[in-house]
């Protein structure tokens, strides 16, 4: 449960960073700076998707004492 809360907090932080980068891109007058902020925003949007994909591909961690998955 603690891990789920932490994951949700991180995802929210990533969404906020993406929104901030999008705002800065909107405000930028220089096309190269605008493009850079758009790329940063896209990276923040993609990050939780990549983490989720990696988590799905990992084998579950086993609790050796109780012989059960802990993920």
Could you explain the architecture of this structure?
The chain has 71 residues and is mainly alpha-helical. It is built from two helices and two strands; from the N terminus they run ααββ. It has a two-stranded antiparallel ribbon with strand order 1-2. A hairpin with a 4-residue loop joins β1 (62-63) and β2 (68-69).
Key terms:
two-stranded antiparallel ribbon; 71 residues; 75% helix
Order of adjacent strands in the largest pleated sheet: 1-2
Please tally the helical runs, counting DSSP H or I stretches of 4 or more residues: 2
Query: What is the subunit arrangement here?
Result: single chain
The computed structural class is mainly alpha
| Percent in helix | over 70%
Kindly report the average pLDDT value: 88
What does this entry show, briefly?
This protein is mostly helical.
What layout of secondary structure does this protein have?
Blueprint lengths: L1 H26 L3 H27 L4 E2 L4 E2 L2
Antiparallel strand pairs: 1-2
Helix pairs in contact: 1-2
